[in-house]
């Protein structure tokens, strides 16, 4: 390999282009590979994953908990039932308080006592059989245990769960100050379609205390963080295909169905992630279309890196032709030289992979924001992943080195001395790879341009009215007149008018030039925030955005 390193040191631009191309492409391959593996293998690690199904209709996974009990009684194919629902709120322990973060499904989960018999989430301490066998018991995750109790043993400690809700007139007011005894500590949720933000699991029987009301049959079974979901574990070899009509009739006759039709859906646990009924509320949601686009883009990037290596290596074979001719004269066979060149390309790929892995770890958090999904490279290192990585390195190395080795070994030493080798390689393979790269580049640029033009058209399409300096405001429920009267007193508000068909929405025409609209917009937000805090005690907030954003 000394001659190869000497060649790389003397051709720094060649080395830089190849290494950078392979490093960037392999970094994205590592990030996207981990993301894709997690998306497609989610929840497959449960022992009974093949027997667990989630029921709902054709548009959502919403289901009434009392309906789940009745369906289980009607269908002998069902072995167990488990209702699961996420709830937004806060957890209190003494003076400590843990709240939901932004864009989270909710840190509180309520579930039937069968939850830990259904799902194989690992418990650090406690019993799976008795963890939720009483309404006053709860299970906390490691993250919450460390945050509230530190090194102290949390088992037997009491915490308070307070859900976010507004009590509607006529509803029974439930006691929200109930305490729960910690019965077990579970590992943080990961690699599951259930919300990874979950920090505490309480018994489903206490959900009215968190939501202020029970789910009646004449309304939807929704919490403040998504619908109530019912999982069924079927007996081995059983399906619910023959019972769908029976379930449809029961739901239509006993529950609120807006259009009088109901078609039940029975989705395997492994397919919930990409199911069309999954709206991302109370569940992790995947997007196959976005995943396929990302995979295509990364594979195109890898193709560019490989073709760059092949093209540059073939173009620079003249620099090493004398070395290969000398090796042939000293007895090396064509096969030995070919394997040497493949080994060199594999070594470069392995080096690029190591650098790409380091960069992937550095940019992992940014990739999570970009891909909108969990990536945990270090957690997913195992025999299978290591074997796949080694296989990928060898595959890319062989593909990268195969054509250059074939090109170098197909000539006799006398051809190299005469200079025929350099002439033919530059005239044939170089042009082929350049044409391929140009075709792919033009195709991708054309697709990007078409997408940009379409988005530009949608953003700037005429709406039939003037949108300049026009804002919409969503005021807190019941406070529309207060907000309107305050806005009328502001000198920069020209006129106010309601939007027909939209509850609690007003449009404000601002009499001001476009050049200062942005600063006025920010000023209005600050003024209205202060205005609301001084006028009333309300948990809701005013929402104000330019009218144009409503239609984008």
The structural class is: alpha+beta
Q: Give the CA-CA distance, first to last residue.
A: 58 Å
Beta-strand fraction estimate: 15-25%
The whole-angstrom Rg is 31 Å
Low-confidence stretches are 501-519, 535-542, 547-552
Q: With helices defined by DSSP (H or I, 4 residues minimum), what is the helix count?
A: 17
> Total number of β-strand segments?
18
| Helix proportion | 40-55%
Shape: globular
Averaged pLDDT, please?
A: 78
**How would you characterize the largest beta sheet?**
12 strands, mixed
Description:
The chain is α+β, with helices and mostly antiparallel strands. Helices cover 46% and strands 16% of the residues. Strands 1, 2, 3, 4, 5, 6, 7, 8, 9, 10, 13 and 14 form a twelve-stranded mixed beta sheet that branches. Strands 16-17-15-18 form a four-stranded antiparallel beta sheet, covered by helices on one side. The chain has a two-stranded antiparallel sheet with strand order 11-12. A hairpin with a 2-residue loop joins strand 11 and strand 12 (226-227). It is globular and about 95 Å long. Mean pLDDT is 78; it is low at 501-519, 535-542 and 547-552.
């Amino acid at each position: 390999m000394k001659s190869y390193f000497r060649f790389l040191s003397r051709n720094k631009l060649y080395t830089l282009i190849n290494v950078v191309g392979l490093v960037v492409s392999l970094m994205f391959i590592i990030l996207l590979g981990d993301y894709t593996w997690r998306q497609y293998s989610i929840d497959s690690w449960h022992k009974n994953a093949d027997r667990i199904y989630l029921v709902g209709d054709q548009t959502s996974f919403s289901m009434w908990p009392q309906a789940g009990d009745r369906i289980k009684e009607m269908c002998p194919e069902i072995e167990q039932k488990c209702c699961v629902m996420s709830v937004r709120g806060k957890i209190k322990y003494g003076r400590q308080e843990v709240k939901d973060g932004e864009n989270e499904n909710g840190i509180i989960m309520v579930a039937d006592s069968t939850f830990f018999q259904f799902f194989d989430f690992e418990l650090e301490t406690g019993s799976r059989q008795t963890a939720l066998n009483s309404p006053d018991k709860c299970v906390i995750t490691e993250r919450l245990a460390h945050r509230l109790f530190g090194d102290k043993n949390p088992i037997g400690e009491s915490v308070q769960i307070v859900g976010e809700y507004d009590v509607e007139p006529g509803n029974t007011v439930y006691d929200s100050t109930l305490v729960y005894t910690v019965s077990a500590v579970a590992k943080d949720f990961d690699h599951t379609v259930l919300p990874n933000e979950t920090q505490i699991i309480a018994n489903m029987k206490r959900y009215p205390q968190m939501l202020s009301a029970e789910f009646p049959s004449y309304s939807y079974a929704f919490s403040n963080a998504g619908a109530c979901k019912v999982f069924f574990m079927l007996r081995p070899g059983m399906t619910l295909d023959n019972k769908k009509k029976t379930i449809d009739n029961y739901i239509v006759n006993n529950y609120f169905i807006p259009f009088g039709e109901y078609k039940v859906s029975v989705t395997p646990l492994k397919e919930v992630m990409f199911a069309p009924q999954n709206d991302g509320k109370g569940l992790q949601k995947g997007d196959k279309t976005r995943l396929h686009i990302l995979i295509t883009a990364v594979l195109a990037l890898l193709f560019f890196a490989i073709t760059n290596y092949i093209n540059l290596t073939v173009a620079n074979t003249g620099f090493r032709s004398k070395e290969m001719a000398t090796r042939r004269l000293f007895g090396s066979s064509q096969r030995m030289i070919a394997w040497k060149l493949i080994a060199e390309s594999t070594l470069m790929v392995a080096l690029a992979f190591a650098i790409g892995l380091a960069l992937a770890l550095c940019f992992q958090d940014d990739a999570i924001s970009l891909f909108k999904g969990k990536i945990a490279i270090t957690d997913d290192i195992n025999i299978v992943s290591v074997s796949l990585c080694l296989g990928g390195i060898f595959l890319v190395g062989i593909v990268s080195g195969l054509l250059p080795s074939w090109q170098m070994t197909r000539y006799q030493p006398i051809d190299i001395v005469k200079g025929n080798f350099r002439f033919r390689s530059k005239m044939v393979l170089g042009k082929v790879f350049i044409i391929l790269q140009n075709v792919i580049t033009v195709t991708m640029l054309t697709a990007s341009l078409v997408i940009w033009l379409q988005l530009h058209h949608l953003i700037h399409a005429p709406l039939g009215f003037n949108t300049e300096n026009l804002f919409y405001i969503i005021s807190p429920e019941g406070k529309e007149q207060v907000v309107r009267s305050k806005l009328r007193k502001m000198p920069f508000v020209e006129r106010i008018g309601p939007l027909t068909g939209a509850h609690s929405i007003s449009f404000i025409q601002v009499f001001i030039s476009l050049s200062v609209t942005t600063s006025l917009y920010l000023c209005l937000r600050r003024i209205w925030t202060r205005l609301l805090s001084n006028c009333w005690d309300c948990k809701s907030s005013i929402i104000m955005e330019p009218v144009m954003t409503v239609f984008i």
